[in-house]
Amino acid sequence: MKKRVLFLAALLCSAASVFAAAVADRPVTVEELPDAARKFIRTHFAASEVLYAKVDDDLFNNDYKVVFADGVSVEFASNGEWKEVGTRRGVVPAAIVPQPIRERVEKQFPGVRIESIERDRRGFEVGLGNGLDLKFDRQFNLVDIDD
């Protein structure tokens, strides 16, 4: 009986160590990013210097993060599609923000810059320079304003 318990404990410890090793951040080069992520960087941040890139290794998928020297950070899904773009008091490139969202922000908050944008399966969240966060659904309807 003691041997079984010791065997199960050893098995559990080894499984936990494998899981811990699988869930870790590790640095990568831009060339190691998925094609869609590299294209996104070339299109929207060609003039920016990459400070570092890393992959969040997960058991089921990998997420990527790229940080530029000017303080912009971009998070990518495992397929290379962007999930989030954030700046430090900068402006998210207008081409990244869907036109209906840009128009709504320009109309309702003239002169306020978009400092971050995040997208997921439910919609978009936009962070403004005045501290407000705007949430839009997939049809670009404004559904919430958070201060």
Beta-strand percentage range? 25-35%
Question: Main beta sheet: strand number and arrangement?
Answer: 9 strands, antiparallel
What is the count of β-strands?
9
Distance between the termini: 60 Å
What Rg, in angstroms, do the CA atoms define? 20 Å
Low-confidence stretches: 15-22
Order of helices and strands: HEHEEEEHEEEE
User: What is the general shape?
Assistant: globular
Given the helix and strand composition, which structural class is it?
alpha+beta
Chain-averaged pLDDT: 88
The percent of residues in helical segments reads 25-40%
Strand order of the largest sheet: 1-2-3-4-5-6-7-8-9
Distinct helical segment count: 3
Task: Provide keyphrases for this structure.
147 residues, alpha+beta, 9 strands, 35% strand, nine-stranded antiparallel sheet
Quick description:
With 147 residues, the protein is an alpha+beta fold.
Layout: helices, strands, pairs:
Blueprint: H1 2-22, E1 24-28, H2 35-44, E2 50-57, E3 62-68, E4 73-76, E5 82-86, H3 99-108, E6 114-119, E7 123-128, E8 133-137, E9 142-146
Antiparallel strand pairs: 1-2, 2-3, 3-4, 4-5, 5-6, 6-7, 7-8, 8-9
What can you see in these coordinates?
- The protein is of the alpha+beta class and 147 residues long.
- Helices cover 28% and strands 35% of the residues.
- The protein contains three helices and nine strands, in the order αβαββββαββββ.
- Strands 1-2-3-4-5-6-7-8-9 form a nine-stranded antiparallel beta sheet.
- A hairpin with a 4-residue loop joins strand 2 and strand 3.
- The longest helix is centred in the N-terminal third of the chain and has 21 residues.
